[in-house]
Design brief:
alpha+beta; six-stranded antiparallel beta sheet; 4 helices; 8 strands; about 30% strand; globular
């Protein structure tokens, strides 16, 4: 199944400076960036993976996987997912497309921030993110020591749920 990059972009544009009431706002408890990125990905794929612990889903704040809201957990889910839902491959900056994911980290390898690609300007990715809300911010305006790029390669069919978009 194809990933609907336009749907992910439209969702990011709509919710970059607001919070969708269907999801808990994690700003005060560790940050909302990966929660927002997961919402954007979900808008582009419409399929969650309900595998306990290692899947990727959000039903309520108390009934979700760590991969929905945790930077490292999202990375691990996307690059290792062989079941339902989105899957990704780590790539270089030149392979990024709208709706793909960028994660920022420290030299130690600790990644702490997730952004969604929402455009490009002169070859530089523009991103949308929560916690420090933004839409269309150039990647080179961030300060970081490490970066990784995740290209959403596709979506596998599986059990679905419909949440308010």
């Amino acid at each position: 199944m194809d990933y609907d990059r336009e749907a992910a972009l439209l969702y990011a544009r709509k919710w970059a400076y607001r919070r969708n009431p269907a999801y808990l706002n994690f700003d005060g408890i560790g940050g909302d960036c990966t929660n927002f990125a997961s919402q954007c990905i979900y808008a582009g794929c419409g399929i969650m993976n309900y595998t306990p612990v290692t899947g990727w889903f959000y039903i309520t704040a108390d009934n979700r996987t760590a991969s929905w809201t945790g930077v490292e957990f999202l990375y691990n889910f996307l690059v290792r997912n062989e079941g339902a839902g989105p899957y990704a491959e780590e790539t270089d900056i030149s392979a990024l497309e709208i709706g793909d994911i960028i994660q920022l980290g420290r030299e130690t390898g600790d990644f702490y921030h997730t952004c969604v690609v929402c455009g490009f300007r002169a070859g530089v990715p523009l991103v949308a993110a929560h916690t420090y809300d933004t839409f269309g911010k150039p990647l080179n305006a961030y300060r970081f020591e490490k970066v990784r790029f995740l290209h959403i390669a596709g979506v596998r069919a599986g059990n679905q749920t419909s949440l308010v978009q």
